[in-house]
Amino acid sequence: MRTVATAAAIGLLMGLAATPAAAQEQCPRGTLDSRFCDRDGDLVADTPTDARQLVDPRTLIFAYTPVEDPAVYRRVWAEFLDHLAKVTGRQVQFFPVQSNAAQIEAMRAGRLHVAGFNTGSVPLAVNCAGFVPFAMMASRDGSYGYNMEIIVHRDSPIQRVEDLKGRHVAFSAPTSNSGYKYPSWLLREKFGLQEGRDYRVSFSGRHDNSVTGVANRDYDAAPIANSVMFRMFERNVVPRDAIRSIYKSDAFPTTAYGTAHNLTPALQAQIRDAFFSFNWEGTALLAEFGKNTPPAETFIPITYKQHWAVIRDVDTASGVSYTCR
């Protein structure tokens, strides 16, 4: 009897020890937070299979990436949000977020359902908040993207990247691809300039703050997303001739639009349909984002696995972790 009991106990312990491995096999997740599964290998969180984990809100909360004045973009997005409300049969509320971190935390906490996350924030939003991107703005011919430019005041003695040594450089936010992650890697790896050692660093909070700060000579230089800068020129926020560029990168993908992973499948499908069925003609959205180069005139389908590969590569090379806090 003692032998049988001992064997049973050992078997129980072995079963418990095997549980984590078995659970991982049933719920593969890669770099995703432990709350999510990725059974299809697309690198984003699966929609929960347990109906109790799904949410079906009467009011959808939408947030656009906090790169510029939220008051301006509440108006810009108004017609699209009316369309989203009509397609889904829900009320839709614009949520003006003040930082990338606040936007990610809002989705992670279940307070944000539909969002546009800036390029650099997308991997963290995917891995920590369960963001599922599916759309991006593009021109009618499918062209898309923006460039990171390092800008200085027109009268600055700085002529090339190497001249930033000993200068004051303003990054936008730590999660921004063009505002911090890519340019800090570029300065370190390609030009031998280490932040804090070779140049002084500030964080302006947003790309528009960086552009305005350079125009007003608050900073010697700043890396920015040029699509933001061009829209500011068009709105006469800063004079075009106040800025000079000393470096321009290859093109990056732009803001990604998507949903929280745990919305009901039917609601997720309706939201996708709203993006791809929206008529841009004559709207404030076209008036604003049509100023981009190339112009943004429609939404095109994207996948995180394909379109954000270059961003993940930069993160890997820079030692960035998607660990959730």
Descriptive account of the structure:
The protein has 325 residues and is an alpha/beta fold. α6 packs across α12 (309-317). The longest helix has 25 residues, at 2-26. The strands form three sheets. The protein has a six-stranded mixed beta sheet, sandwiched between helices. The protein is globular and about 60 Å long. The protein has two domains: 51-142 and 253-317, Periplasmic binding protein-like II (D-Maltodextrin-Binding Protein, domain 2, 3-Layer(aba) Sandwich), CATH 3.40.190.10; 146-252, D-Maltodextrin-Binding Protein, domain 2. It starts with a helix and ends in an 8-residue tail after the last helix. α6 links the parallel β6 and β7 (200-203). The chain has helices spanning 2-26, 70-76, 78-88, 100-108, 122-129, 177-189, 207-215, 226-234, 265-277, 284-289, 304-307, 309-317, and strands spanning 59-64, 91-94, 114-117, 131-138, 146-153, 168-171, 200-203, 221-225, 243-252, 256-260, 298-301. The protein has twelve helices and eleven strands. Residues 59-292 form the Solute-binding protein family 3/N-terminal domain. InterPro entries: PhnD, Solute-binding_3/MltF_N.
Which architecture of the largest domain would the CATH scheme give at its second level? 3-Layer(aba) Sandwich
Total helix count? 12
Task: State the name of the first-level CATH class of the largest domain.
Answer: Alpha Beta
Q: Look at the helices and sheets and give the structural class.
A: alpha/beta
Number of domains: 2
Rounded mean pLDDT is 91
- Give me the count of strands: 11
Corresponding CATH superfamily of the largest domain: Periplasmic binding protein-like II
Q: Provide the spatial order of strands within the biggest beta sheet.
A: 2-1-3-10-4-11
- Pattern of helices and strands: HEHHEHEHEEEHEHEHEEHHEHH
So what's the overall shape?
Answer: globular
Largest sheet: 6 strands, mixed
